[in-house]
Every structure is written in structure tokens, then in C-alpha cells.
Amino acid sequence: MPFKRYVEIGRVALVNYGKDYGKLVVIVDVIDQNRALVDAPDMVRSQMNFKRLSLTDIKIDIKRVPKKKTLIAAMEAADVKNKWENSSWGRKLIVQKRRASLNDFDRFKLMLAKIKRGGVIRQELSKLKKQSA
Amino acid sequence: MIRDDTRNRFSFPKLVENPRDRSFLASWCFPVEYSVSFHQYQVVGRALPSESDEHPKIYRMKLWATNEVRAKSKFWYFLRKLKKVKKSNGQVLAINEIFEKSPTKIKNYGIWLRYQSRTGYHNMYKEYRDTTLNGAVEHMYNEMASRHRVRFPCIQIIKTATIPAKLCKRESSKQFHDSHIKFPLVFKKVRPPSRKLKTTYKASRPNLFM
């Protein structure tokens, strides 16, 4: 029941609204009750409202407001990218992106694969039915 | 020829490759990110030269306004109160915008102001934590309007300063002076990633746990 994800310096968060939607950013300092100073390797350090951030489980070890180089080094050391892509949340987002970027031919291939998978499942099911009967 | 800048601020994306891919929506929805409406201007002006006074004294003022026109107007408002000169017998020599020197650094701003309430004039000192002075000034105007019902024309900013953390007086800014600050976000605001995807009805109740 208690809270597990805290707003703290080094917390990695996902931007869920606005211009930087979908980016992973690091909370580098807290401005006040509603805003944080966030930074990411590919953006200028800026302020962001907490309402736009979804906190993740990942936390990196940095001091308050590190230099860009230190931040990038700390992100490499904590292996944020791989941790994110292997987490269930990260994987779901990757799958969503892949599904949204399918072209018609890909969707056709997907349809065939689904039919094939359905057929294999039905075969196994009928085998199990025959065994129990 | 009138150039309408506001018309072209929102540029719609060209033909979208995949209508199911909605990530483009976020990129153009907010072309102006966190724009503060207040700008700081330096206005320099003097009375017009006359036979009695060939070189009138030049006065300089730093003030906050939403645009240059209003800045010049505010300049004359203050100068009229201080010197015997009006816009009709004076001239603005220069108006420059003053930009924030370090917009990525968080600072504690102290603002001294004089405001007119329903019963008289009062002085006030307020503190704000922000990255830019313009942001702090905007915060101040909004707060004065909400807490004291005092609007922009009734507020005069006497002085602003960047306060080092040790000298902050207000508890609301001192509580963030903690290099190991840590607090949970208590509930999650569930909202669609862009205004375009807002719907009146949802299929399921939201989960507010962070």
C-alpha cells in the first residue's frame, strides 16, 4: 500500500502529455510542488509539470542538477535504456509503436500469422479432447 | 500590410502516413511550450528638449509587460508619477527586452511590491522558486489576483532580486531547499495524451494509483 515511486533527484519518468510525449526524462531538480527540472540526453534542460510525468521504477544515481556529460554517463552506468526496454511497461510501448507503424502488407502478414496460430491451437485442443474422451 | 503572426502559429501536419499512429498529435498540439506572458523590458525616455531645457535628463526603467506597447505605456505611467513629464511632451529613446541569463537554473526570487487593495495601498514581499524571473513575476501576478483579488493595473513592482537559499524567508520556498528531496505523487491524473483524444465517455473507470 505505501508508495514505491518517489519524485526524487535521479528518478526516470515518462512524459505523458505535450510536445515531448513518449520521452524518457530524468528529474534533475524540484522547482516547487508542481514542477520539476527535467533533463534528457537529447533535449535542453527544462521545467515540466508533474502532471505531465509518469514516474517509472528506474532511478539513477546523480547529484542535484548534474552537467549534461555527467547525466549521460550516469544513464549509461545505470543502463536506463535496456532496463526500460526490458520492463513490461517499456515492452508494451514498443509493441504499441510497432503495431501503429504497420503498413498494409504487414497487416496482411499479421492476419496470416494469426490464422496459422489459431489453427495450431485448435489442433492441440482437439488432440487433448480426443485424449480425455 | 498587416502580418498576422498568430494565424500561422499552429501548423497542421501534412498527410499522415498511418492514421493509426497518433504520436504526431503531441508534436503540434503545443507549439509554444511554457510561454510566460510577461516580458521584462528596459525603457529609456526623457522629456522633449525645449528652449528652457536643451538636454533634459534621461530616465531608464525596467518593467514587466506582456508586449512592448504596454511596456511603453507603463513607462509613462511611472514617469508621470515621478517627474513632471507626460507622453505628449516626452519621447521614448529606447526599449529593449531583457532576457533571462540562466533559464535552466532554479533560483529563489524575492519580489517587493506595492498594491492597491479595496481599502488602501500596501507593501508586500513575496518569494517564488522558478527558473526565470519572468516566470516568477507571472506567478506573482496570478497569485495576487487569486489570493487578494488584485489585478495587474493595481500592482507596482518595487524591486526583484535573486535570493540565496540561506536568506529565504518563506517556508513555502525553504521546504524545497533539500538536496535529497523526495516525495511521492499521491494520485495520478488520468488524461489522454492530447486534447484531440478527449472523449466524454470512457469504457472503464480510471485507476488513480501512481
UniProtKB/TrEMBL annotation, chain A:
Keywords: Ribonucleoprotein, Ribosomal protein. One of its GO terms (cellular component) is cytosolic large ribosomal subunit. It comes from Tetracentron sinense (Spur-leaf). This is Large ribosomal subunit protein eL14 domain-containing protein. GO terms for molecular function: mRNA binding; structural constituent of ribosome. Residues 45-117 form the Large ribosomal subunit protein eL14 domain. It holds the Pfam family Ribosomal_L14e. Belongs to the eukaryotic ribosomal protein eL14 family. GO terms for biological process: ribosomal large subunit biogenesis; translation.
TrEMBL record, chain B:
One of its GO terms (cellular component) is ribosome. Keywords: Ribonucleoprotein, Ribosomal protein. GO terms for biological process: translation. It holds the Pfam family Ribosomal_L18A. GO terms for molecular function: structural constituent of ribosome. InterPro entries: Ribosomal_eL20 (IPR028877), Ribosomal_eL20_dom (IPR023573), Ribosomal_eL20_eukaryotes (IPR021138). Residues 39-160 form the Large ribosomal subunit protein eL20 domain. PANTHER family: 60S RIBOSOMAL PROTEIN L18A. Belongs to the eukaryotic ribosomal protein eL20 family. This is Large ribosomal subunit protein eL20 domain-containing protein. It comes from Tetracentron sinense (Spur-leaf).
